[in-house]
Write a structure and sequence with these properties.
By secondary structure, this protein is mostly helical. It has one domain. The longest helix has 35 residues. The radius of gyration is 22 Å and the shape is elongated. The protein starts with a helix and ends with a helix. 24% of the residues are buried.
């Protein structure tokens, strides 16, 4: 059962990363004015960051359980999960407060951040944050790719084989 929960959390996290970052955010900026799109995207990325942090912690805990139960395939997956979690923590929880402070300072000055004196600094922080998001996404792809394919299958087949043998012999 823990391997199934591990898979579920992995695909929920990685799926949401790609959906929000590479589908929803570009549509927002193509459909809305920059200020509104940025505001909505910021809210979505906040939700994504919390989801990532929760999934990351749960995946690390489950990975430890699976390794203790003999699931050696999960040893490397814990490192990928830890790296993704670091990307979330740095990319959102460390950089985002600085970006938000610049956005608020620009609004207090009567303009949006893109047309303010803070535009260059905001752009640099946004670029670094985007790089962390990209690295997290690539690590997520690797995590999904490296998920054990047959986890739990051999024990289930063995149980079915015993049942089938009992029916034939009985």
């Amino acid at each position: 059962m823990p391997h199934r929960v591990f898979r579920l959390l992995t695909v929920a996290w990685v799926g949401s990363l790609f959906t929000i970052g590479y589908a929803v955010a570009p549509v927002l900026f193509a459909s809305l004015d920059r200020t509104t799109a940025g505001s909505v995207a910021a809210q979505l990325f906040r939700i994504e960051a919390v989801l990532g942090a929760v999934c990351g912690v749960l995946l690390l805990a489950l990975g430890n359980v699976l390794v203790r139960r003999g699931g050696d395939a999960y040893r490397r997956l814990r490192w990928l999960t830890a790296a993704m979690l670091v990307c979330v923590l740095v990319g959102y929880f460390a950089l985002q407060p600085f970006m938000e402070a610049l956005r608020v300072a620009a609004l207090n000055a009567g303009t949006d951040v893109g047309h303010s004196a803070y535009a260059a600094r905001f752009g640099m922080l946004h670029g670094v944050s985007s790089l962390f998001y990209l690295v997290e996404s690539l690590l997520g792809l690797a995590l999904v790719w490296m998920l054990p394919v047959g986890a739990g299958v051999s024990s289930a087949q063995g149980a079915r084989g015993d049942v089938g043998a009992g029916k034939v012999a009985g």
